[in-house]
Amino acid sequence: MLTSPSLRIAQLLCGFSLLLAAAMAAPASAQTRQIDSWLEFKFDSAAPMGAPRNPAEILPSGLAGVVANAPGTKRSGDVVFISAIEFQKIANAPLASLALGPLLNQIANVKSFDGFNAVDFTGLIKNLPSDIIEAPDAVVRQANPQNADEIRKLLRDGDIVFGSHVINYMTWGRFNHVAIVLDAAKGVIAESTAQIPGDTPGVRLVDWNKFASGYARVGVVRLKSSNADQLTKVTTWVAERKGKPYRWPLIQGLDKTDQSRFYCSQLVWLAFREVLKLDLDADKGMLVFPDDIYNSKDYVEVIVP
C-alpha cells in the first residue's frame, strides 16, 4: 500500500475538494440564519471589540456605572462602548442583571457596516432577530445568484445600493455596506470606505461592476415620490464630499452629523437629511447602519431585495 507524503497530500486535497463542493451546493437557507437573542451566541474573547465574533455594545451613559469596571470599556460623549463578551458576562451576574433589566427585556439586534459590528441600544426599534451569514462570499453567490448587468439596467441616479460581504468568516445584518448611484447611465457609484487601520480612500467614486463584484449579494432601494431635481441635489452634495476621510466610530466618535469624515451609511444618510430633510435612519440610534436605511420603509421602496 502506498503511504508516500505525496499520496497523503493528494488525499487531503481530495477531501478538501469534496467539502468545498458540498458547501458550494448548499441551499440558500443554509447561508443566512436568525438569532432571536444574540446574548446566547458564543462570542470570542480573543476578537477585538467591534469584530464579528465580538460586536461592540453601545449603551446609554446612565449605565456607565454598571459596566465601568469591565475590561476595554470606553466612553464617547453620551454613550459607553463595551464588548459583547464582557456585556454577556455582566448580564449573567445576578446583581448587574437587575440594573440591566430594561435593556435585557428589549434586546436590540446586531448590525454592521464595513467590518464594524455593533448592538446600538440607543435605537428605538427593539426585539428584532439578528441576521447572521456564516459562509464564504463565493458560496453565498452560488446559492443566491444575481446578474450585476441586469441590476445595473434598473439603476437610476440617486438610488441607494447595498452590499453584503462576509468578513472573517461571518457577518451580522442583511447588508454591511451602502453607497449611492451618482450617474446610472455611466455606472458611477459613490461610497465611503477604508482599510483598517487607515482612513483612506474615504469618499470615492467607483464603477458599478467593481462595486457589485466585491459582495456576495447586492440590494437596491429608491426614494419614494422624488423627482430628478431633488435627486440631482442629493448626488451633487455627495460628489462634493469626494476625498473626505473615513470615520471609525470607536476612534473618531459617533456623531453622525459631523461632516469632517464619513462611514458608508453616514454619508448616504446625511445626503438625504441635509438636502431633502429626510431621516432614513429607521431606528434613530446613535449610529446609522445600512440595514437602518434599507428598512426606512416610509421613505424608500425596495427595487432589489
Structural class: alpha+beta
Q: Helical element count?
A: 12
CATH domain class of the largest domain: Alpha Beta
Cα radius of gyration in angstroms: 21 Å
The residue-averaged pLDDT reads: 86
Give the N-to-C terminal Cα separation: 55 Å
Named at the architecture level, the CATH assignment of the largest domain is Alpha-Beta Complex
Number of discrete domains: 2
The oligomeric state is single chain
Chain-wise SSE layout:
Elements: H1 5-24, E1 32-35, E2 56-60, H2 64-67, E3 74-76, E4 79-83, H3 84-91, H4 94-99, H5 101-105, E5 110-113, E6 116-120, E7 130-133, H6 137-143, H7 148-154, E8 160-164, E9 171-172, E10 177-183, E11 188-194, E12 201-207, H8 208-213, E13 217-223, H9 228-239, H10 249-252, H11 264-276, H12 290-294, E14 300-304
Parallel strand pairs: 2-6
Antiparallel strand pairs: 1-7, 2-4, 3-4, 5-6, 7-9, 8-10, 8-13, 10-11, 11-12, 13-14
Helix pairs in contact: 9-11
Summarize, please.
The protein contains 12 helices and 14 strands. The relative contact order is 0.13. It is an alpha+beta fold and 305 residues long.
